[in-house]
Automatic annotation (TrEMBL):
It comes from Malus baccata. It comes from the Eukaryota. Residues 60-87 form a coiled coil. Residues 125-160 are annotated as: Disordered. This is Uncharacterized protein.
Length: 160
């Protein structure tokens, strides 16, 4: 077939008078060769399309496998994330408990310190009016006072 229009009309079984003239002038051998060439061309197109579809199918399969792999990785990361959250929560809980214990211990140390200072001042001779010197107070850091933390049970020396 010489042009696309003729091929389209022949494909629809509509032959125009012009086409009849062209087709009638061809020999059987030429018609068979053109038919064979057209068949080979069609087969090549079908084969090409099949190869493209096969390649696309393989690409889709590859992408689907990658998606599954990524989903498994996400599941693993979510599990690891949950474990890390649990560890962080446990760590925070333990640290809070230790801080509370340290604060209680600090309060008890401060209370013991006040009792000791009270006992120490009671055993000093009252006539000297001895007050701890600046050197002694500078050698130890100042102790913070806790509101309402008064010594409740100070040891009182026995006086006759």
């Amino acid at each position: 077939m010489k042009n696309d229009m003729t091929a389209a009309v022949v494909a629809r079984n509509l032959v125009t008078p012009k086409d009849r003239r062209l087709l009638s002038k061809r020999s059987d051998e030429l018609a068979v060769k053109e038919s064979l060439a057209l068949s080979v061309q069609c087969a090549g197109s079908v084969s090409n399309m099949a190869q493209r579809l096969f390649a696309r199918t393989r690409q889709v399969e590859s992408l689907a496998a990658e998606v599954m792999s990524l989903k498994q990785e996400i599941r693993g990361l979510k599990h690891e994330n949950k474990q890390l959250h649990k560890l962080a929560h446990n760590y925070a809980t333990n640290m809070k408990r230790k801080i509370d214990q340290m604060q209680e211990s600090d309060g008890q140390i401060l209370l013991d310190h006040r009792r000791f200072v009270g006992l120490f001042q009671q055993h000093l001779p009252s006539s000297s009016g001895a007050v701890p010197t600046a050197e002694a107070s500078n050698s130890q850091p100042p102790t913070p006072s806790l509101p309402g933390a008064l010594p409740s049970c100070e040891a009182q020396p026995d006086r006759p």
